[in-house]
Specification:
By secondary structure, the protein is mainly α. Helices cover 72% and strands 3% of the residues. The two termini are 44 Å apart. One of its GO terms (biological process) is transmembrane transport.
């Protein structure tokens, strides 16, 4: 009987594993087609030769990576020097994405806390209000932001009408405009994970801290933040990563002087004069940088959780 029971249990386990495999198969196929295949294609293209009318020649070449990292002069026969142009664009992308993430955290955290502390009937209403603007296409929202911030736009007209300024503020085509655009584009990605974490938080812990004469700042720093840290971490990642590769906000709000890596990649695939291998190489470098940042952040998060546990 024991042998029969063990045999039956093994058969049930095998059936469960087989069913799970078949259920996961559509997801794996979808991910392979929509995620893995494009990345592999970009990796292959980055090692091919440029076709001057657009596209690629199927000949192995490291010219795209060489162009990104080294400057060999106009005719390519000078001693190699570091190509600071693209390094500067990458640094600007990191800085802009970091600033947008910080601004989203500063605004998104209290917003998420406010929503999570409303009554159960009102929380869905506030979440609904947060997501309404994002029913509209990102391009339309970014163009609307440009219209709002331009020299003759509603913002400047209002500030001049109440006497706060005498002449229009030049906001468009500045770093500040790009940061506002990124912040506006990805703010819900910060609010919603933090809201989900705060909603699950046990507020009895804050009450216990207050009973032990902890100040509100101490309760926030020592009790609330450690408990909702996964939500904050997820929100920061969800804002930082897409901000790094964004090109709509830099193109429409930043102008040529505020080029970001997403804009650089977009330019390489535009029209018949682009450099597809160089764009693919820049994409792979961006992907590698994002993966390094994610791995480092995950490692630091694991160390912090282990130390806290």
């Amino acid at each position: 009987m024991a042998a029969g029971a063990a045999s039956g249990g093994s058969a049930t386990t095998d059936t469960y594993k087989e069913a799970r495999t078949w259920l996961l198969l559509p997801a794996w196929v979808t991910l392979s087609i929509l995620v893995l295949a494009p990345v592999i294609m970009m990796l292959i293209y980055s090692f091919l030769t440029k076709e001057f009318r657009g596209g690629v020649i199927w000949e192995f070449s490291l010219a795209a990576y060489d162009q990104f990292f080294f400057d060999r002069g106009l005719f390519g026969d000078d001693p190699p020097k570091i190509e600071w142009t693209y390094v500067t664009i990458f640094w600007r992308s990191i800085w802009q994405a970091g600033a947008a993430t910080l601004l989203s955290l500063v605004i998104g955290f209290p917003t998420a806390y406010f929503i999570a502390t409303r009554s159960e009937n009102m929380r869905p209403v506030w979440v609904f209000l947060i997501t309404i603007p994002y029913w509209v296409n990102l391009l339309i929202r970014t163009v609307s932001m440009k219209f709002l911030l331009r020299d003759q736009g509603p913002l400047n007209d209002f500030l001049m009408s109440i006497g706060l300024i005498d002449s229009p503020l030049h906001i468009v085509n500045t770093n500040f405009a790009v940061q506002l655009g990124l912040f506006y584009s990805y703010l819900p990605f910060m609010v919603l994970p933090i809201y989900a974490a705060v909603e699950r938080y046990n507020f009895a812990l804050s009450e216990a801290a207050a009973d032990l004469y902890a100040s509100k700042w101490t309760t926030l720093r020592r009790v609330l933040l450690p408990a909702i840290k996964p939500g904050v971490f997820a929100g920061c990642i969800l804002v930082f990563v897409p901000s790094m590769g964004s090109f709509l906000a830099p193109d429409l709000l930043g102008g040529a002087k505020n080029f970001m890596i997403g804009s650089l990649i977009e330019e390489q695939f535009k029209g018949n004069a682009g450099n597809w291998p160089f764009g693919a190489a820049a994409s792979m470098i961006l992907l590698s940088m994002v993966l390094i940042i994610l791995m480092f952040s995950a490692r630091q998060q694991a160390k912090a959780d282990k130390a806290g546990g």
